[in-house]
Amino acid sequence: MFDERDLGRGLLAVAGRGWFAKGAAALAIIGVASLLMLAPFGGGSTTQAACPPGIPGQGGDPKPTGPLRVTQVAFAKLIDSVAVQRGLPGKATLIALMTALVESDLQNLTYGDADSVGLFQQRPAAGWGTVRQILDPRYAADAFFGGPSAPSPPGLVDINGWPSMALGDAAQAVQVSAFPDRYASREQEAREIASAAGIDLTRSGNPYAGRSDAPAGGSVVDGLQDDDCGQSGGLTAGKPVNGVWPEQKATVTDPTGTGGLVTPRTAAWVALARKNLGNLSMSCWDAHAWNPTSDHPRGLACDVMVGTDSRKSAPARARGDQIANWAVTTAGQTGVHYVIWYGKIWSARRGTWIPYNGGGVYNPTDATGGHFDHVHVSLY
Question: Which of 101, 126, 160, 364 would bridge 186 by S-S if both were Cys, CB 3.0 to 4.6 A apart?
Answer without folding.
Answer: 101
